[in-house]
Amino acid sequence: SKYPEYSALLNEYREGILLFDLTNTKVWQKAVDDTLGLKEFYTRNQNKYMWGERINADIYHCANLSIARKVKSGVRYAVRQDKIYSTEKYNAKELKVTSGNFVKGANIYVDKVKWELGISKDIKEDNGGFTFIHIKNILEPESKSLKEVKGKVISDYQQKLDEDWIQELRLKYSFSVNKEILYSILR
């Protein structure tokens, strides 16, 4: 009673902690713990979590042009024989191979070549090294797995739980905003 501003601050702090704890229980932690609800939410909204067109490729980074030509020739021969090219005779300084699925914008080397099956026609010089790409497959757009987008799905699920909770509270409790007081605070 002696310090009303301090009392109001403590009350605001207490209510903030209560709101945080309730929101954690109803929204944040629920989205993480409710695996069935998360899977159901993902299944209903699977079209929001799609891969664009991608390629499956090997990117060969060679130390010099001579090695790049030998490796490219070896890869071309292995592809014709329907075999996998062995890079064991080269050390890590001479040759580095990056394999995987790539979307546009994810890799500068992939973005520089035309997306068609086979080995890129040119050997590109890059920072003192030489690079070429072997595109093994062009993948059509498809849904990402829940494992691949779990963080984003949890975030979206939390947002939906929050919206549902607010809607439930608005139906259960009536409220009004005194606009005169609100605008006086804003001024």
Molecular structure report:
By secondary structure, the chain is an alpha+beta fold. The chain is built from six helices and seven strands. Strands 2, 3, 4, 5 and 6 form a five-stranded antiparallel β-sheet that branches.
Which SSEs are present, and which pair or pack?
Elements: H1 4-33, H2 35-44, E1 50-51, E2 54-62, H3 65-80, E3 95-103, H4 108-112, E4 118-119, E5 124-126, E6 129-139, E7 142-143, H5 150-172, H6 179-186
Antiparallel strand pairs: 1-7, 2-3, 2-6, 4-6, 5-6
Summarize the structure.
The chain is α+β, with helices and mostly antiparallel strands. It has helices at about 5-35, 35-45, 65-80, 110, 150-170, 180-185, and strands at about 50, 55-60, 95-105, 120, 125, 130-140, 140-145. Helix 1 (about 5-35) packs across helix 5.
